[in-house]
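ok trying again, last paste got cut off:
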Amino acid sequence: MVELNERYIVDKDGKKSAVILDIEDFKGVMELLKKYDEIETYDTEDVTADIIEAFKDLKKGKIHLAREILNEL
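nice, full thing came through this time. structure:
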């Protein structure tokens, strides 16, 4: 976990309205965001549909090899 030395700007009621970060902390957060953006995301709706289809086939007696299903993912 990233440790930040954040400071807050508050309004007259003490409600936080902004955050101040040291430049190095900000750069670290931006670097983490870039890495996060590089992670390939999967469409879980498609995966769920594939799993449902495999279970329907299983009920009919049709068996899929694990690698066959995993290669589609």
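cool. The CA atoms of residues 14 and 26 lie 24 Å apart. The chain has two domains: 7-38, 42-73.
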